[in-house]
Specification:
This protein is α+β, with helices and mostly antiparallel strands. It has four domains: about 110 residues, Phosphorylase Kinase, domain 1 (2-Layer Sandwich), CATH 3.30.200; about 200 residues, Transferase(Phosphotransferase) domain 1 (Transferase(Phosphotransferase), domain 1); about 80 residues, Transferase(Phosphotransferase) domain 1 (Transferase(Phosphotransferase), domain 1, Orthogonal Bundle), CATH 1.10.510.10; about 210 residues, Transferase(Phosphotransferase) domain 1 (Transferase(Phosphotransferase), domain 1, Orthogonal Bundle), CATH 1.10.510. Helix content is about 35%, strand content about 15%. Strands 2-7-8-5-4-3 form a six-stranded mixed sheet, with helices on both faces. Strands 15-19-20-18-17-16 form a six-stranded mixed sheet, sandwiched between helices. The protein has a two-stranded antiparallel sheet with strand order 1-6. A hairpin with a 2-residue loop joins strand 16 and strand 17. In the C-terminal section; belongs to the protein kinase superfamily. Ser/Thr protein kinase family. In the N-terminal section; belongs to the leguminous lectin family.
């Protein structure tokens, strides 16, 4: 077996030689202990808090009695105290004879705690500014520190869900420090001893004496990298970012690294550094990362937790801790992302704890869970499957619009009976949809299991499919467009006698509207006879109508929200149930839109289920299952085509193709095009490599996509469609990046000065080249 200690930076090994019992705190300061000369003035904000006299403090702590001692630190000790009518407090007494750094810690902590307020930061109650004593008084944390409960002999082991909740609280506190205040705060000393627990087990960050402040950064690109600041070395052995140790640079990513170590502590119930162990096991972070790489992480987790952690939850938790402790800071997530992933881990644990019923391919259909329709009811609802109620057709059947009961509109999927797969699809879809519940999955209302008919009834998606709105199926705005054009300008829609740039009235008018000179080309007879308010409304309507394909197509923000919804649905399928569900046929026709334009995944007849995985490594690859080939031309993962293996990464690939469809408004496969352009995914990836992606995006979107948003969107679609499945992101990562893209679009839209009288955002054209590395 290899030796993980070979990965340790040399500076770690130097530090451990000099680290003693009280010197776990790393601090380069003045080694001479001299009487501190305290300044006369404290930060102005401190005077809003109660000022205790030294006499009151001594009375509260029984004159700093040893039995009241809670904790010892480098610059002072913490005592339990009782003030007033029995309120418990924590009294931090800074050493009167200590290094100058003690004064700095006191001043920093006072300044920060006076400015910061958050439910996951410890609260300041008051202070004592006596001539010879500098003391801070905090709310008392009844349940001590996280460290106490991980290693303490006097406490029962914490249940796994409680550990997750504690971690989430601490993550929220750190996220607030990094982004929630006027000045970003780098805690600098995140460890399990500085995460306190109140009487309700709510976690609080404490000990801000080594923290640093700086102005919040502006965005220079889509990567959340904050400007670093230089400082003396601070932190605790076993938690300190190796990049920081090498270069004496401090950033939020140092806190992220330290928090990742805490996550490993929580999982393994082992100290971050233990000099009594073999050299290759002394630093917890390196030992755990090595075990993950070897696929033996389960062997070293806290024995109390074994058999109590849901595999879906463990997978997410280990992955986020591993990412937090990446060697390079710019590859670590920010605390907002960590918080979200920990919340997802908790959600997965809670769902697993409810013991979701497995799908049994031979089980009876769930009559008690959803409504069973009779065939006469279905025929009545669809007017005996009347052609006028036909909505769409799939590989195994047709879909009709129907009306049931008191007028409720439904979609009725009538499966073909001439294939064995039709019956299998019916059973799979009913059983899956009875178990899966998510806001971005289409809801099952009921089914008909008649001898001669197999029918599934869903909620009706009033706005059709994403494909309908990308390609304009069922929309024919041309006659109305022509009427509006002729009414306004009194000229033909097409006039071959005019110059080339004026042949098509629609294109000509759009140009004049964009330049603000539309009034120049209207019918001379109408000039001076149209009220300005009427003219503006009329032009606005006409502009919308003459956009290509009728402009029922959604704006970029709407497209992003549709994609995010679909991504959330897929993410839930892959990780949100006891068994991972592989969708197997992701395409724009199977993403439906309800009356509020919320996207829903549909058509689960080809879906596959497989057990959630155990960790063999940190890459999120689930055990693959063999199956007949399934999918739609243009969307199918090339790896799957070559080897007939099915995994969640196949869904990711197909979703990447959908993203390209959304951007380019082009079908995934079009046999009428030149051979090199027939498959959208290969054509777009080639254009990206050539730096000409902007040339092929939907012309309707040109000038309307913020460059920052476009870059993120193209990047995530490109990664999803990587040739090798193990280089593609998982759907949770896709979801996060799409949310970031939407955030960038909304931010840019609010800042953009609207110079177009018709309210059309116009961004500069952008071009960029993504290096092809797969």
């Amino acid at each position: 077996m290899g030796n993980p200690s070979r990965f340790l930076p040399s500076c770690f090994k130097v530090i451990t030689k000099t680290a003693g019992h009280r010197k776990s705190e790393i601090s380069k300061g003045n080694e001479k202990h001299a009487k501190i000369q305290y300044p006369a003035a404290l930060p102005e904000e401190i005077y809003r808090y109660r000022q205790f006299s030294l006499t009151e403090i001594k009375a509260a702590t029984n004159n700093f009695h040893p039995k009241s001692l809670i904790a010892e630190g480098l610059f002072g000790n913490v005592f339990k105290g009782i003030v007033d009518d029995g309120n418990f407090v924590a009294v931090k007494r800074f050493f009167p004879d200590s290094v100058q750094d003690a004064l700095n810690e006191f001043q920093t902590e006072v300044k920060l705690l006076c400015q910061l307020r958050h439910q996951h930061l410890v609260s300041l109650i008051g202070y004592c500014n006596d001539k010879d004593e500098k003391i801070l008084v905090y709310q008392h944390m009844k349940n001590g520190t996280l460290r106490d409960h991980l290693y303490g002999c006097n406490y029962d082991p914490l249940p796994w869900k409680q550990r997750l909740e504690i971690c989430i609280g601490a993550a929220r506190g750190l996220h607030y420090l990094h982004t929630g205040a006027k000045h970003a705060v780098i805690h600098s000393n995140v460890n399990s001893s500085n995460i306190l627990l109140d009487d309700k087990w709510v976690s609080m960050l404490s000990s801000f004496g080594l923290s640093k402040m700086r102005p919040q950064p502006s965005y220079s690109n889509t990567t959340k990298v904050l400007k670093k600041i230089n400082s003396r070395l601070v932190g605790t052995v076993g938690y300190v970012d190796p990049e920081y140790l090498r270069g004496c640079e401090l950033s939020e990513k140092c806190d992220v690294y330290s928090f990742g170590v805490v996550l490993f502590e929580v999982l393994c119930a082992r100290r971050s550094y233990d000099s009594t162990l073999d050299e290759n096991e002394q630093f917890l972070v390196y030992w755990v990362r090595w075990c993950i790489g070897e696929g033996i992480i389960y062997n070293i987790i806290d024995s109390y937790l074994k058999g109590k952690i849901a595999l879906e939850c463990l997978k997410i938790f280990v992955d986020i801790a591993y990412c937090c402790t990446n060697e390079k800071g710019d590859t670590r997530p920010d605390m907002g992302e960590v918080e979200l992933m920990l919340e997802l881990a908790l959600e997965m644990q809670e769902k697993a704890d409810t013991e979701l019923v497995d799908v049994d391919p031979h089980a009876a259909l769930p009559e008690e869970i959803c409504r069973q329709f009779s065939l006469p009811e279905i025929r009545a609802a669809t007017n005996n499957f009347h052609p006028n109620l036909f909505i769409g057709k799939g590989g195994f059947g047709t879909v009709y619009k129907g009306i049931v009961d008191d007028g409720t509109l439904v979609a009725v999927k009538r499966l073909r009976q001439d294939t064995a797969y039709g019956l299998k699809e019916f059973r799979t879809e009913v059983q899956l949809l009875c178990q899966l519940c998510h806001q971005h999955l289409v809801s099952l209302i009921g089914y008909c299991n008649d001898k001669d008919e197999k029918i599934v009834v869903y909620e009706l998606m009033k706005n059709g499919s994403l494909g309908d709105h990308l390609y304009g199926r069922g929309y024919d705005p041309l006659p109305w467009k022509q009427r509006l054009e002729i009414l306004l300008c009194a000229r033909r829609a097409y006039d071959s006698t005019l110059d080339e740039n004026e042949l098509h009235l629609a294109d000509c008018v759009r140009g004049y509207i964009g330049e603000g000179t539309i009034y120049n080309i209207i019918d001379p007879y109408l000039k001076g006879k149209i009220a300005p308010e009427c003219f503006k409304i009329f032009v606005d309507i006409a502009y919308c109508c003459i956009n290509k394909k009728g402009d029922t197509r959604p704006e970029m923000g709407e497209r992003l929200e549709i994609c995010i919804g679909a991504a959330r649905g897929l993410h839930y399928l892959h990780t949100g149930a006891k068994h991972a569900v592989i969708r197997s046929n992701v395409n724009s026709s199977n993403i439906l839109l309800d009356d509020k334009w919320v996207s829903m995944l549909s058509s689960f007849g080809l879906s596959k289920m497989c057990p959630q995985p155990s960790y063999s490594n940190t890459t999120k690859v689930l055990k693959k299952i063999n199956s007949r080939l399934v999918g739609t031309v243009g969307y199918v993962d090339p790896e799957y085509l070559r080897g007939c293996e099915l995994s969640e990464k196949c869904d990711v690939y197909s979703f990447g193709v959908v993203l390209f469809e959304v951007l380019c408004t082009r079908r995934s496969y079009d046999s009428t095009l030149d051979e090199n352009e027939q498959f959208l995914v290969y054509w777009v990836r080639w254009c990206i490599g050539e730096g000409i992606i902007y040339n092929i995006i939907d012309s309707y979107l040109k000038g309307k996509i913020a460059p920052e948003c476009l870059k993120i969107f193209v990047d995530i679609a490109y990664c999803c469609t990587n040739e090798k499945g193990d280089t593609r992101p998982d759907m949770g990562e896709v979801e996060l990046m799409l949310e970031l893209a939407l955030e960038m679009q909304e931010k840019a839209d609010t800042e953009l000065v609207d110079v177009d009288p018709h309210g059309k955002y116009m961004y500069e054209e952008v071009s960029f080249c993504i290096s092809i590395s797969d």
